[in-house]
Amino acid sequence: TEEYxxxxxxxxxxQESEAKRYAPKVYSEARRYLRRAERAYxxxxxxxxxxxxxxxxxxxxxxxxxxxxxMFKQGEMVP
Length: 79
What we know:
The chain is mainly α. It contains 4 helices and no strands. Helix 1 runs antiparallel to helix 3 and helix 3 (24-42) runs antiparallel to helix 4 (46-73). It is elongated. The relative contact order is 0.23.
């Protein structure tokens, strides 16, 4: 559950930083891995879900960083 919580928090942060707009490919990867992780967890494939949660967290953080950097370069307010 810790991996789940970290992945969800990272994904939420990516959403709040408008990653869907500024880093759509990386954001989509994060969302895809989060969905896979949740599905694997429900089906009780815990080791598999842990790996997916970690990948989702990685891509979520990457999308957030890209988004914030692009916003900063454009002179927009960074949330």
